[in-house]
Amino acid sequence: MGPHHPSTHGVFRMDVKLDGETVVDLKPVFGYLHRNHEKIAENISYLASMPFTDRLDYFNSMTNNWAYAIAAEKLVEIEVPERAEYLRVIMAELTRLVNHISLVGFFVNDLGALGTPLLYAFREREKILDLFEQASGARMMCNYLRFGGLRCDVPEGWLKRARDLVDRFPKFLDEYEQLLCENEIILSRTQGVGTLSRDLAISAGVTGPMLRASGVNYDIRKVDQYGIYNRFKFRVPYSENNVGDCYDRFMIRMLEMRESIEILKQALDGIEEGPVMGNAGKVFKPKPAEAYGRIESPKGELGFYLVADGTPKPYRFRVRPPSFINLTVLRDMCIGQQVADAVIILGSIDIVLGEVDR
Amino acid sequence: MNLLGAGILKGMAVTLKNFIGSYFDKERLNTLEYMWQNDKSLPKRAGDYPKEEGEQLRPTTTVTNYSRNFPMLLHDDGEPMDTIRCVACQICERECPPQCIYIEKSDDKKERPGGKPQFYPATFDIDVSVCMSCQICVEVCPFDAIVMNSQFELSTPDRFNGLLLKRGDLLKSNQYYHKIHPEEAADRDKRIADDKAAKEAKKKAAEAAKEAKKKAAEAKAKSEAEANSKEESKDPSEPPQTSTEHNKEENTE
Amino acid sequence: MNWELIKDILLATVPLLVIFPTMFALTTWVERKALARIQNRIGPNKVGVPMSRYGGKLSLFGLGQPAADGIKMLFKENIVPTGADRLFHLLAPILSLIPAMLVLCFLPLNFPWLTDEQNSVKAFMLDGAVIFFFAITGLNTLAVFMAGWASRNKYSLLGGMRAIAQMVSYEIPLVLSAVVVVMTVGSLNAGEIAKSQDGWNWFVFSPWGLAAFIIFFIASLAETNRSPFDLPEAESEIIAGYFTEYSGFKFALFFLGEYIAMFAISGLAVTLFLGAGDGPGAEAYPSLKVIWFLAKICVLIGIMIWLRGTLPRLRVDQLMSFAWKFLMPLSILNIFITGFAWHAENNNEEYGFTIKAIIWTASLLILYLTAKGLDKVNRANIKPRTYQYGE
After folding, report:
1. Residues B18, C310: C-beta atoms closer than 8 Å
2. DSSP alpha helices (H): ranges in B181-213?
3. Is residue C51 part of a domain?
4. Helix residue ranges per DSSP H, chain B
5. For residues C221 and C312, what is the distance between their CA atoms, to the nearest angstrom?
6. N or C end of chain C: smaller count of CB under 10 Å?
7. ipTM of the complex
8. Which among A112, A217, A238 has CB closest to C236?
9. For the segment C86-123, what is each residue's pLDDT rounded down to a tens digit?
10. How many domains does chain C have?
11. What structural domains and CATH numbers belong to chain B?
12. Per-window interface: A 222-261 vs C, CB < 8 A
């Protein structure tokens, strides 16, 4: 299957050996979208890598920015002002909504639903992207965060618009759940398909909603409490039955969106006026050091590892992409399933090839 | 015990609601139609796409006051080349992540209104097929000379030259900037004015203090400025901040 | 030469060949519009009659779209993959269209301009019309497999195999649910069946008729490869299934054949269960019957479109087990229930309403509980789950 196949989410090739319609062996082939991201980053200044991180996982540019900013802020220990921290949380949670909503849409599209749930998801996504555009000037490639803060403050009235959106979102989620969550066809298509055991998930380094769907209560927002996540009250949904099939992965994301809305409400209540940029100078030239910054991106643990050598360019720049590492268990999940299942298992992993291939 | 097929029926109710809702509810169907064909003033053929000012600001297009697309060069009121703000310091060229800017510095200096003679860009090209609209050039520019345009009607039959924007294409007036990004432009103008006022005040204070040994100070300042400009042209890899300060001083003097 | 007969044949069949392809064109437009609205889009709304070179045209809500599609299809290149069997690659789309067109003759459409004698050249007056209908629709399977095999493409072959398995297994519930009607009427003649339902005596208004109609409708969705049973052409899995390698006019023929088959099978559903041409005013003005018949077909097509906009598709094994383990037992049970009910009603006419009420409730209950039980057995562990939260 692939690389030009309607449901491989980009240019991804699955070398599938079939017995009738049952998958006997599967070999993922990727690299078609390799852009040399890490090497380019080692040859340009720290700041100039920021727009390139947008293009890693093009659904979640805000969280990519944040992970990179955290790594760079660790290098030089810059203070981030209060308002900027709040805005970062707001942006990250909005990004999580965007990612999960469109993932669920794509996933059901892979099940064969002719795009209806996907287009509902995109309708809501457009509204969030409008907010991003008002804040940063671009809808997807936001490039909004800077070391020590944000590029600019949000325009007037933005917080009110965000508030409106957050208030209206649960209504949409109700409708979406009504459409999908009890549908007999979806239930029988996803339950018991592509199971990932708790042990395998942990030993393969799987993170994010996929790990939680396998029954592990692990969320970097809780573990690291980066940013100001320790101020918010939220819960982390995880599966209790230790099955970890496609249905769990789908439902965990639906539940996580509800929690994101809770965080957004608290953050929008708590935000105060103030500067959005810290005392970082215009030139970013860290002393020789190394730093690893990680966040809970919507897809899992996104980490940036930086080694500085005292010049304005990083000596080593390494990305830990969640979709790539979550993809490593694809073969174990697919063997013994049907062709149609292989497609939805891939869909439920939630990969973005821009991040897998870099 | 729930009804057989209840999930499917529920789903069908949702789609029916959306089907009917799309005729009445703006929340459900929020598509804007792009009616360029019925608009006489818009281009008819590929290649005729507008490059005039304000052309993209039609109510039917989706460009908002906040969107950014490709960079443009600002000039103040008056002849574009006489009032261009860019002094060809080449910081943006150096900082541009995909390296899409090409600048050639002029050999001579040009008189600026309210300032000293400055260099100007003899060539200023942006290859918009490479540009990724990241706005880093805008952030690093110390003169507020380059800002983001929101024009998106750039399609052209010529793949290479058509997408290479020259200095003439890039030059836009400050009023145009105010038109497309009112809030941002107002902020920027205010900041420039504030900076200028602060500099002026500082200068005045300095002048008052230096009144006694006026002559010596003046001579010293002059030689310093000259040294700086020399230094700048010699050493292009100098960190941006220093050159910024030097240039600003030059400007206000 | 018998010119009279030829005239009769033309009079009887040409209207069919005009009405149904036109309906096909309109249906493609309606389907695109309706799906778009279901998905909160606008749908085709630009293509119309151009009035001048630049702008200024009669767009008519995009009604020009089918014509534009047709023209595009006609002018596209005919691509045959190397190594494909050229002859069968060519024959497959033709073979898929012919049975679909043929079975239109079995629909009891009494055009007002035809006498009974002229109508008799059409096949619905045949005494075995319903059997013939199923026999000829079965040919479609052959065409699909021919396309899948001749394309020399793995996706096509998978699609063809799926199509065969699906169509063969769904023929059975389809036929078994039709048996209910045939038993009650006591005739296989489509004209007779239609006549017996006049005066709001539709079969769908009885419990067994309703059950049979639902089974028939589900099976007909599978027969015509409509969502949620569109596995032979499952886009997210096997690209376009058996017509992956078809382009241009051959593709258009497949498309046409598929839609005509949809009309035909909805027409049969209307004939068997929905009272054929019966409707308000049909008795006073017999010419209204044709209109009602076509309108009912359109309603069924509308429901198909609606389902397509809502549901994801099943998996192959689930599809098969749904046919064999759910629909088939249910339809066999339905036949027994019909038999009992028919006898109970006809032999106890003195009790009238009471016996009718008892039979109806009992059969509804039995059918529903069986369906529920079969569902429980088939999908034992499948139900919504609950999740826990970590702090």
Report:
1. no
2. 182-210
3. no
4. 6-24, 91-95, 136-140, 167-170, 174-180, 182-210, 214-234, 240-252
5. 14
6. N
7. 0.75
8. A112
9. 888 888 888 888 888 888 877 777 776 666 666 666 66
10. 1
11. 16-180 (3.30.70.3270)
12. 222, 235-241, 247-248, 251-252, 255
